[in-house]
Design goal:
With 205 residues, the chain is an alpha/beta fold. The chain contains six helices and five strands; from the N terminus they run βαβαβααβαβα. β4, α5 and β5 form a beta-alpha-beta unit. The radius of gyration is 17 Å and the shape is globular. The protein binds flavin mononucleotide. This is NAD(P)H-dependent oxidoreductase.
Length: 205
Amino acid sequence: MTTDAPQGTDRSFLFVLGSSRPDGNTEALARAAAEQLPADVPQRWVDLTRLPLPDFQDGRHETGGWPAGENEEILRQATLEATDIVLASPLYWYTLSAHTKRYLDYWSGWLSVPGLDFKERMAGRTLWGVTVMADRDEVVADGLKTTLNHTAAYLRMRFGGVLFGNGSRPGQVRDDERAMIRAKTFFQGATPVARFPYEDGTAER
Ligand SMILES: Cc1cc2nc3c(=O)[nH]c(=O)nc-3n(C[C@H](O)[C@H](O)[C@H](O)COP(=O)(O)O)c2cc1C
């Protein structure tokens, strides 16, 4: 059986900005891609520096759980409301920024909130990545791409891939012509159900 991705107005995008500085390259590239989305597709933008989360504490196996803070609640709701989640993280040490990684760590907490059904509700949604790095060769961002693919695979989400850009000084990514061209069609790309490498590809697509 094929599970089709939601189309048109059934879609809503959440952009999660994970840079540790305002007006950075990653946001600029994500906005260039978002400009191409149809006007009737809602977009919500959250900046993790403006909704700071404390370091995640693993309370999954404790009784009683732990109270969610206000920012956690906002992010949890925004995450569950979106059909498409775009992690816009600069490349930091060849992977996601700490802000972005911490937000993902909270997904582990949400997975064990009784009655939230986080895993079931995330299945079939689409995860996307946008990243900008100082290095000109995107092969060095393989780790980030693998992290996002496997995260999507674990949750039975679709994965739209990663939009890469080059830049260091804020705004520099606008000079990366290849990235700006790719941004124009990025969200029109294929969104296959994500798979772990050990899955044989014959299962449901
Ligand atoms: C903590 C830190 C780690 C970084 N690590 C890498 C890296 O591993 N590879 C790389 O090419 N660039 C690295 N950079 C450069 C950033 O990816 C680059 O400046 C990018 O444009 C930042 O995105 P932003 O403008 O959205 O903040 C690093 C920058 C910082 C501050």
